[in-house]
Amino acid sequence: MTRRHLLTTTGCCAAGLLGGQPARCEPAARPAPRRPRIGIPAVADDHYARAVRAAGGLPEALALDDCGPAHLARLLERLDGLLLPGGADIPPAEYGGRAHPSIKLLDADRCAFEKALGAAWLAQPRRPLLGICLGCQWINVLCGGTLVEDIPSELHVSHRDTTHPVAIAAGSRLHRIFGRAELVVNSSHHQAVREVGRGLRVAARCADGVVEAIEADAAGDPGRFLVGVQWHPERMLPGDRLQRRLLRAFVAAAAGG
Question: pTM to 2 decimals?
Fold first, then answer.
């Protein structure tokens, strides 16, 4: 018992005795757990915000109209975690890729904002970041990696509008989160990681060889929650308890856990 708690308890009990009533010393209420603020670039799909809220975080939609240094500095100061959501395709010029007829380019304003914010965020150590689908690809590109421009034409398989199992790498952060070596995920992407970026490693693959998740490796920032997944965990909630673990682990890291 601390000195402060002892004095408070003694005073409470003495007041009860002086008033002729039995002393009732109620313990101080514990403060509510802190809800970390999670930034999400503004998109029409509300599944991301609902998933963050359900995991204990406070989602904040980020306007895409300002990617200047001063604004980015304010975001870095205010936010505890960053979630980069799914969307269209990163321009191939960003990773030395080639044009392909299947590519549908990301809106220019969103592309500029996510590139600037993602780079600024990654430059700060230990800041939690979760990338989903396009967000996974952004993490890889911003770390110097490259992408498969079109899975169907290059690998002759499809990852559009389907579900499939993925193998989780032993010893990876994802393996610790999920507690298993394989799980079934949804899939709606036509691009994927080709060459893995600096400080990253493959954390999950599909049986056809397509990279399904990346994370910080031992040479990068191994204690950091830096994870990108090609599937959409937010669309598998609330029913999928394994995907709930992923969102909760991300929010807990943003809260300092």
Answer: 0.87
Compute CA 92 distance to the chain's CA centroid, rounded to the nearest angstrom: 24
**pLDDT for position 220:** 77
Number of residues assigned to the chain: 257
225-239 as b/e: b if 16+ CB within 10 A: bbbbbbbbbbbbbee
Collapse the DSSP code of 68 into the 3-class scheme (helix H, G, I; strand E, B; otherwise coil) and give the result: coil
Q: Is the pLDDT of residue 22 over 80?
A: no
Residue with tokens 């220019």: 108
Residue in 183, 213, 226, 232 with CA at minimum distance from that of residue 45:
232
How many other CB atoms sit within 10 Å of the CB of residue 99? 11
Query: How many angstroms from the chain centroid is the CA of residue 144?
Result: 19
How far, in Å, CA of 144 to CA of 128, rounded? 19
User: How far does Cα 152 stand from its chain's mean position?
Assistant: 27
